[in-house]
Amino acid sequence: MPRSIAIVEDEPLIRANYVEALTRLGYEVRGYASRGEAETAFAQRLPELVIIDVGLGDEPEGGFELCRSLRAKSATLPILFLTARDSDFDVISGLRLGADDYLAKDTSLHQLAARINALFRRMEALRRPVAADSVFAQGPLKLETERMRVTWNGIDVPLTVTEFWMVHTLVRFPGHVKSRDQLMRDAQVVVDDATITSHIKRIRKKFIAIDPAFDAIDTVHGAGYRWRA
Q1: Which long-range contacts (CB under 8 A, 24 or more apart) does 170-174 make?
Q2: Closest CA to 120 of 203, 202, 35, 47
Q3: Which residues, including other chains, have CB under 8 Å from residue 175's CB and lie 6 or more apart?
Q4: Where exactly are the structural domains of the chain?
Q5: How many CB atoms lie within 10 A of CB 211?
Q6: What pLDDT, on the 0 to 100 scale, is given for residue 110?
């Protein structure tokens, strides 16, 4: 039985394009034009993954409101923002409300499909017992590859799928400088240098929120980033 995906997007053409593209990939997809329309449908049955735009019709932050109410209904439902609004402030707002990932609308269908697959994989892995060989520990950091989960001093670090793979690349080779190209490749994203910089900035902020003394990620100017050995 195909997995069900809901797309909440107020632009009819964009909504229709995503519904058609993801249906071709084998998903059962339904599109909704507004927060109200989506919430009415979700009260009957929750889909297995939801893709949301931030601005919905006359609600500039309708997507954030929808994310909040969905997260209250289900702690594990994968929620992905797909929006033209990708400032640091908007991204962090979305992730604080419990979204799992946040992509810009100029993201390719290939990248969107990779993100959806990764979220479904993470959801399945969270249901399984932890495999010992998928756990990497170093000092206060623990990384579970299968579950795409990172903890610091035993506290969950709420990383998106993109951020998880960037941290994974850095911590597996502590002390080694990883270029922006390597981080992009491992995270399966194709973005500019400024976007990689803002991902790293957000990753740091998330660790610092747990531990204000966190300083394990070094910027090596002109070369990339490294996790302190």
Answers
A1: 170/217, 170/225, 170/226, 170/227, 171/136, 171/138, 171/141, 171/143, 171/227, 172/136, 173/227, 174/138, 174/226, 174/227, 174/228, 174/229
A2: 47
A3: 226, 227, 228, 229
A4: 4-126, 129-227
A5: 14
A6: 84
| DSSP conformation class of 56 | B
φ/ψ of 73, rounded to 5, equals -75, -35
Do domains 4-126 and 129-227 share one topology? The answer is: no
Amino acid, single-letter form, for residue 67: C
| pTM score over 0.70 | no
Please name the CATH architecture into which domain 4-126 falls: 3-Layer(aba) Sandwich (3.40)
Reported as a single tens digit per residue, the pLDDT across 117-162 is 888 877 776 676 656 667 888 899 999 887 778 999 999 998 877 7
Q: What spatial distance separates the first Cα and last Cα of the chain, rounded to whole Å?
A: 46
State residue 88's pLDDT score: 62
Provide the pLDDT for residue 106: 78
Query: What is the Cα–Cα distance from 55 to 85, expressed in whole angstroms?
Result: 8
What's the fold here for domain 129-227?
Answer: Arc Repressor Mutant, subunit A (1.10.10)
Q: Let me know if 179 is exposed, middle or buried by CB neighbors in 10 A (0-12, 13-18, 19+).
A: middle
- Does residue 102 contact residue 160 with C-beta atoms inside 8 Å? yes
96 burial via Cβ count (<10 Å: 0-12, 13-18, 19+): middle
Determine the Cα–Cα distance for residues 184 and 182; give it in Å rounded to an integer: 5
